[in-house]
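ZP: hey, is the SLL complex queued? I don't see it on the tracker
AM: it wasn't, my bad. submitting now with these inputs:
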Amino acid sequence: SKRTKGVAVVYPIVYGNVATLLPQKKVPDSDHTHRWTVSVKGLNGADISHFVKKVTFKLHETYSNPVRVVEQQPFEITETGWGEFELSIKLQFVEPSEKHVTLYHNLRLHPYEEDGSISTANKNKPVQSFQYEELVFTDPSEALHQILTQH
Ligand code: SLL
């Protein structure tokens, strides 16, 4: 649709992961140590499916099918694994003329101390690593502008 000139619409999002240590031998015949969920949401878990059409999570190549596509809320992936890695999160919007946005996140499994060593005292506590970001739509299409300002 037509662009809305001279306007920027800002939408805050939160993305990242939680991770928990698996009870030993939970995943048979594997060296997986953790279960984790990576997600992208609005503030306070707000639904973003009114303007996000598709989220593509690209995991480490040690995963089979590392490219995971989610086309509905919740935009998240849960997996088990043994290691930390950087993953990408590509957002595509309901208005196809709106350029996609790619975010990067370092998957975190371990409770780190200030000095970077792994805390053994906290190893059974869930780990969280989230980042705040603002999506900025400059001169958005009229359709997207309407969707974002009506909500
Ligand atoms: C590391 N550079 O060595 C990182 C790579 C990759 C983690 C971590 C795969 C699980 C599976 C998995 O956990 N990969 O599919 O078996 O720490």
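AM: back. Strands lie at 8-21, 34-42, 52-58, 67-70, 76-81, 86-93, 101-106, 127-138.
ZP: great, adding it to the tracker
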